[in-house]
Specification:
The complex is a heterodimer of chains A (107) and B (114). Chain A has 107 residues and is mainly beta. In chain A, 0% of the residues lie in helices and 50% in strands. Chain A starts with a strand and ends with a strand. Chain B has 114 residues and is mostly beta strands. Helix content of chain B is 0%, strand content 52%. In chain B, strands 2, 4, 5, 6, 9, 10 and 11 form a seven-stranded mixed β-sheet that branches. In chain B, strands 1-3-8-7 form a four-stranded antiparallel β-sheet, with no helix packed on it. Classes of the chains: A mainly beta (107), B mainly beta (114).
Chain lengths: 107, 114
């Protein structure tokens, strides 16, 4: 199975910060990485698809990038509504696999 | 807009089974692969498997092959997840999601307890 190593597992952040979360794939997954946001008690929400594409309705302060086997989600000028858990997913190959998640917490 | 409506919370006994439903509205279920995802309390997301309602073909993560069964009923636009031989390790919220996970159900809580 493809491993998605996500870092950091948690991050203490301040409003207005630029935040970057990274997933490293254990083998080539091409562009087939999604990023999800999840708030407590809620379903995940797709934020980025195919590594770099912003999902419908997602603010432009969110962006996705790829460098080799490293995939990143960046949030520019963090707002309070962005404090949540974030998960990456590879869907290049079955079984699909998620990263372990990153929890953003306000300082 | 596609919407997924899941069945309600379940409290079940160890050793029994449970069947969760996920009804699609706003489109035909055959337009999407339907996936199910597990989330234990305070933990990350685990992909269980997916079904193609067009031909009932399925894919499962290895650890769920003897635990989960995915089915679909095109006449009711509904996908199902059956979990068998339940243990405390199956206590979790189960989500259905369609397409490339752009639409999600609200989640169904399963608690396994005697």
């Amino acid at each position: 199975d493809i491993q998605m190593t996500q870092s950091p597992s948690s991050m203490s952040v301040s409003l207005g910060d630029t935040v970057t979360i990274t997933c490293r794939a254990s083998q080539d997954v091409g562009i087939y990485v999604n990023w999800f946001q999840q708030k407590p008690g809620k379903s995940p929400r797709r934020m980025i698809y195919r590594a770099t594409n912003l999902a419908d309705g997602v603010p432009s302060r969110f962006s996705g990038s790829r460098s080799g086997s490293d995939y990143s989600l960046t949030i520019s000028s963090l707002e309070s509504e962005d404090v949540a858990d974030y998960h990456c997913l590879q869907y290049d190959e079955y079984p699909y696999t998620f990263g372990a998640g990153t929890k953003l917490e306000l300082k | 807009e596609v919407q997924l409506q899941q069945s309600g919370a379940e409290l079940v006994r160890p050793g029994t089974s449970v069947k969760l439903s996920c009804k699609v509205s706003g489109d035909t279920i055959t337009a999407y692969y339907m996936h199910f995802v597990k989330q234990r309390p305070g933990q990350g997301l685990e992909w269980i498997g997916r079904i193609d309602p067009e031909d009932d073909s399925t894919k499962y993560a290895e650890k769920f092959k003897n635990k989960a069964t995915l089915t679909a009923d095109t006449s009711s636009n509904t996908a199902y997840l059956k979990l068998s031989s339940l243990t405390s390790e199956d206590t979790a919220t189960y989500f259905c999601t369609g397409g490339v996970m752009d639409a999600w159900g609200q989640g169904a809580s399963v608690t396994v307890s005697s």
